[in-house]
Amino acid sequence: MTIKTSLVWFRRDLRAFDHAALHHALRQSQAVHCVFIYDTAILAGLPRRDRRVDFIHASVAELAAELRQLGGDLIVLHADAAEAIARLAAALQVDAVFANHDYEPQAIARDANVAAALTDDARLWFSFKDQVIFEKDEVLALSHKPYTVYTPYKNAWLKKMRAETGCLAPFDIEPHAARLAPPRTDTPPLPTLAELGFEASNLAELAIPTGMSGASRLFEDFLPRAARYDMARDYPALKGPSYLSLHLRFGTVSLRYLVRTIVDLMERGGGGDGAPVWLAELIWRDFYAMILYQNPHVEGGAFKPAYDAIAWETGPEADAAFAAWCEGRTGYPLVDAAMAQLNQTGYMHNRLRMVTACFLIKDLGIDWRRGEAYFALHLNDFDLASNNGGWQWASSSGCDAQPYFRIFNPITQSEKFDAGGRFIRRYLPQLKALGDKEIHAPWLVPRMLLEQKNIVLGRDYPQPIVQHDEARKETLARYAVLKAVT
């Protein structure tokens, strides 16, 4: 099928390589325009200093430069995307619009509206799989139903990946770049952050790499460390993760490329014990995307509906406890240091995401949805499917979740995964004088010793807002309602 002129709509795929929609548009069209839209429907709910907007702004600038290097251009608009695409398609007189799939319920509805508007104008809409390796119902159990448990899904995913070698093949751009429509004289300049209604964040101060080049540098840095990932990933004071989650979220890196590279490393006998564990983490992303697509009710409700019967703590005391959790004032150093990391940087180590979520739900008895929403607002790498899956795992209401009676002890988690207190001292400098054994539970340190170190609980650091042993009993009682409804 040959199309005269088409438009590629970039969304969460801000790169000009191994890009499914761009590849197919170039292969099928005589001329290809490109657009990115700062969607007012999304931006309206964000704070004026949002690192994600800062990251997108820098990454879009790099994408535009790369497309110009290839002979094309990037039209950048600030508008309601659901309305602007049809208008732009008409203005450019394109025959078709190409994009990559988005699996979030609101995005699915938006794309359906866009496709309908284009159809009304006698234009075509094409969408392609790009942000996952396998989607929707591509990995099914023998019963032909979607998996709800991760391990058998992972095993089936790996089997399918080995059988279908083409699933990792790159969607080349450069060989077809001559079909990119040249820059237009009426293309407006890229909008500034101020023109978008935003202010610069501390993204540059944090030295967070942006764009395709930033993702490439991070992956090159991680590959020599991949063999140790299985051991290092649980310790927040260590440089264990790849730090690519932000880039995966906005598509400045190709998931196919990451999987292809790590699988090739493993097949050549490299990567040690860490590479398969990192690959498994990438598979979790596919798993949660599938769960969200197959079960859109998880956005706002428990995957297991019976868990919606749980009565969470409400009222002024619960609100005060939630505020203390948000602001890192719970009196549990590992929890507070993790929340400080999130609030200061927009990043939180994966082990700590589990610890803080479990503390909010099972120590404070607060609805997991409140924590999910807080993470959604503050995480640089916020992804609805993965964030929801993680919170439902912690609350035991999700697929393949921890049993409700498994309740993390924030002190033992601290002693195990930050034994020397390095992470805690970084984000809670007021506790840096405490010893390695004392720093995990300051309220258990003799008062005389605290005074010697010039630390006064209640002044320099809060007393615990809850006693873990008592909270555990209350949680077991709270979850007992499940016996009556299951």
Structure description:
The protein is α/β, with parallel strands linked by helices and 486 residues long. 48% of the residues lie in helices and 7% in strands. It has 22 helices and five strands. A five-stranded parallel β-sheet has the order 3-2-1-4-5, sandwiched between helices. The model has no long low-confidence stretch (mean pLDDT 96).
Order of strands, widest sheet = 3-2-1-4-5
What is the terminal separation in angstroms? 53 Å
Biggest sheet descriptor: 5 strands, parallel
Task: Tell me, rounded to a whole number, the average pLDDT.
Answer: 96
Number of helices: 22
Per-chain topology:
Layout: E1 3-10, H1 20-28, E2 29-39, H2 40-43, H3 51-69, E3 75-79, H4 81-92, E4 96-100, H5 105-120, E5 124-128, H6 150-163, H7 193-196, H8 211-222, H9 229-232, H10 245-250, H11 255-267, H12 274-294, H13 316-327, H14 333-345, H15 350-363, H16 368-378, H17 384-395, H18 410-417, H19 422-427, H20 447-452, H21 468-479, H22 482-485
Brief rundown of the structure:
48% of the residues lie in helices and 7% in strands.
Provide tags for this entry.
5 strands; five-stranded parallel sheet; alpha/beta
